[in-house]
Specification:
The structure is a single chain. This protein has 16 helices and 20 strands. The strands form 3 sheets. Strands 7-8-6-9-10-11-12-13-14 form a 9-stranded mixed beta sheet. Helix 5 crosses helix 10.
Length: 448
């Protein structure tokens, strides 16, 4: 095994970094972890490393991190501008990501899914489809379970369904999934990547090592995503809201499979998909195509689409109170995700939005806001920016906290309305992550 005898330094003490450190310890024994953040923010990680006998440093990267180091393994999200990477380049030390390191130690069938929005839903749906059909499958990656944690823990026939962020894809080398899926590409994480072009490059790396034996599934209705076919060596299939030559499409409210022999096969009425919204029709088509590659029957696919209710924090029904439906969409961390959310309801919306912006452009939401929203309640660092943008269109109210936002929404909403918490922003101004933010919203709603 290529890892035996090598010395590894892991950069970052997050969940993926610790999992990579434990894997490196098991395959090599020579590992060190370096974290720039303060030790008191990583107490659980520190204890886990200590119990495993893995030396670590916090509060900065010392010379020790690169001395006697054969390979640097980066956790997702560690900024590429971090000084340790520049010094590693000067010393000729290779840098790979946790995803790449783990993949080299696994031989399982692999489906990798990326996109600006819809990743978690599609991964969860596809994993559910595979299990429903009697296949062994596990979801991992950006969905919460690091790929490194699966090494030695699953059967070799288990299908791994990976949710991959641009951070994870940014540092791959040989990673090659059997099936790659790109759901959509819209501006996001620009502070990390530096430009939209570089963000697109990171996303497209999901298929960069694929060959003619592999399958690439693309959204034909997203021009940036569809253009990826020009660089693909894999067999390409498409999903779209209109006929495609090879893939899956929506026509007159029904879903069809198609192939290059110009044969069409009806699957089901799209209205029978349990998850609401056109974006979930797209997610369902992407998952269905990947499932067909692994020879799932139409019956298993159809049954899964009719029964799968979605994932937490993504258009999640929370409660109905006094005739008003409260919906948690905390996972909408950018305007593109909120665009889909605002178009998913046929009822008047009281919209709660805000958080930390990432060069957000709200103009793309204007038409939906005019047609569907009766009031916007704003919170967080972007509160004033959102207020200023939409106040000329509809009524806007600033709230100082999540508690106040929920209280105001309950006062503004009427019987038959929807209170939609779809932030269109990151969570880091007020919460550690979108999960904590969504839980805060749900807790406040439950107190009404």
């Amino acid at each position: 095994m290529e890892s035996r005898g090598k010395s590894y330094t892991i950069v970052g003490a997050g969940r993926s970094g610790v999992a990579a450190a434990l894997l490196a310890r098991s395959v090599s024994g020579r590992v060190f972890l370096s974290e720039s953040g303060p030790e008191d923010k990583f107490e659980a990680a520190r204890r886990q490393l200590e119990e495993a006998g893995i030396p670590a440093e916090f509060g900065g990267h010392s010379a020790r991190a690169l001395d006697d180091c054969d390979c640097l393994i980066s956790s997702p999200g560690v900024p590429p501008q971090a000084s340790i990477f520049g010094e590693a380049a000067r010393r000729g030390i290779p840098v790979i990501g946790e995803l790449e390191f783990a993949w080299r130690h696994l031989a399982n069938p692999c489906i990798a899914i990326t996109g600006t929005n819809g990743k978690t839903t599609t991964v969860s749906l596809l994993t559910s489809m595979l299990k429903r059909a009697g296949r062994q499958a596990v979801a991992a990656g950006n969905i919460g379970r690091p790929l490194s944690s699966l090494v030695g823990a699953i059967d070799p026939d288990t299908i791994i369904v990976l949710e991959l962020s641009s951070y994870q894809l940014d540092r791959i080398d040989r990673f090659r999934p059997d099936v790659a899926v790109i759901l959509n590409i819209a501006p996001d994480h620009l502070a990390y990547h530096g430009s939209f072009d570089r963000y697109c490059e990171a996303k497209s790396r999901i298929f960069s090592n694929q060959t003619a034996e592999n399958v690439l599934i693309l959204n034909a209705d997203d021009p940036t995503t569809a253009a990826c076919s020009r660089q693909a060596r894999a067999s390409v299939q498409y999903f779209a809201a209109g006929p495609v030559e090879d893939g899956m499409f929506l026509h007159q409210g029904r879903l069809f499979f198609s192939n290059v022999q110009q044969q069409e096969e009806e699957l089901m009425d799209a209205e029978r998909i349990r998850m609401p919204g056109i974006h979930n029709v797209y997610n369902s088509m992407a998952a269905s195509l990947a499932a067909r590659v692994f020879e799932l029957s139409n019956e298993d696919i159809r049954d899964s689409l009719m029964s799968f209710a979605g994932v937490e924090h993504r258009l999640e029904p929370v409660r109905e109170w006094r005739g008003v439906e409260y919906v948690n969409d905390s996972k909408a961390t950018n305007t593109n995700a909120t665009w889909y959310a605002l178009g998913s309801f046929n009822k008047p919306i009281v919209w709660i939005a805000g958080g930390r912006g990432d060069n957000n452009d709200y103009s793309g939401l204007d038409d939906l806001v005019r047609r569907h929203v009766q009031c916007v309640i704003t919170i967080g660092e972007e509160s004033r920016a959102i207020f200023n943008h939409f106040s000329s269109l509809i009524r806007c109210i600033e709230a100082a906290s999540m508690s106040e936002a929920v209280r105001l929404s309950s006062e503004m909403a009427e019987d038959g309305d929807v209170v939609l918490f779809s932030p269109a922003c990151k969570s880091f101004d007020m919460f550690a992550n979108f999960e904590m933010r969504g839980l805060a919203f749900k807790n406040e709603v439950s107190e009404l």
